[in-house]
């Protein structure tokens, strides 16, 4: 147990708090830093250190942790800075806190070494000590800083993991810098092609799995659990592999995600991409945008599981800037920055989806795929409410066989646009009570309309994990004249949009390979809900620490 008192302990000399600290400090293994800016804390501290004449390091200000009074400055029971220190300089100088963290780290390490038997047996020999502290014969000092030797050593979380064995990186971890560094390292060492996104997801897990397998196949020590998780042993192995050029040489056991074709290394047009679209039997139409395929028949994909039906506020959203984020370049100038706001966890999977779609479009030369752009993403319930009201009007108009010449009541428009979360039934009841509407017709309208558009408060778009991908499609009209346009997220255009290259590709790969799905491609082929949000930062059930 270690405490740093940084300019704390004000009050009268001899106050009960001082006695409490003094009592606490008597316990074995308890260490303390006493740093005061002004007279009151320093006078308290002067009393406290009297009890520990042989276990106190009286250090300069800021502390250098040089060997002062003979006690080891990293292990000494008390570090006392007896000189005054400017309040602001305590923090702003950037000298004091790092020094105190060394003490805290050393204390943690002592505690963990007691618990864990010999975590450092397989570790590479430590490099020379940089920090000017200690007697030089105590391994624990070195271990804090110098277990890692490769580029990984510059990442604080990783250095700590290597020293303390107190952290395991796995799916959903929030240690972004650490994961980024690991992804970069895996790309070097096993030739994986991870995006350095900082998100520990399926691909990263597979690459770690591949690394562990290769490590064991080469008979290296210690054998690693092949579990796709990155604990201290795998980290130290990865560190070693980074420095060993023979390990990083291409090998047959390089991990490949199951979706990768064997020749995924190549992207030349003649070779199948990761997610190839077979254009046999499709019509090739030369449109004003360039070539767009039109297929004869589209597969239907639906999904009702793992839908992100929850809300996240706008202020945590970020603008998507990856492939498919430039509508003007794609030939559709309709969408602004506000149409590309997504939850940060979506960055990596969305980049992957859009890259794969556009890449395959380039391979087969299909403009519906090459020009795919994000048309809508995060929305407020107010925006969805507006859209829902429009949809109610539209479905009445398009279904005269059901609704005759009924109109949607003007005095229910506000309610129709409101946040209907938990109030769906009330809304139906209110409409049903509005003669000549009946409850049955009201329920029918609600069901039909929600098949195309969710009401405010009930749309997965409000989670920031859903995008609508706009893209152009082409067709020949009845005079064999070429017609092409962006579908513009308009339900009337869905049937034709589905038959384009982009529509076919999304139906084929989005759900099973890339974990995005429409609730129903027959209603909205472009509506892509990300399904892998459980245990990520976007999971509303996830505890934040
Ligand atoms: Zn949508």
Task: Tell me briefly what this model is.
This protein has helices at 16-25, 39-49, 87-92, 96-115, 139-146, 156-164, 176-190, 202-217, 232-243, 245-248, 327-330, 347-364, 367-370, 381-398, 400-403, 413-417, 424-432, 439-450, 494-497, 501-514, and strands at residues 2-6, 31-35, 56-59, 78-81, 283-287, 290-294, 318-319, 341-342, 373-376, 466-470, 472-476, 482-486, 516-517, 527-530.
Structure description:
This protein folds into 4 domains: 2-105, no CATH class; 142-261, no CATH class; 283-379 and 460-530, no CATH class; 381-450. 37% of the residues lie in helices and 10% in strands. It has 20 helices and 14 strands. It has a 4-stranded parallel β-sheet with strand order 1-2-4-3, with helices on both faces. Strand 1, helix 1 (16-25) and strand 2 form a beta-alpha-beta unit. It binds zinc ion. The site of zinc ion has 6 residues, from strand 10.
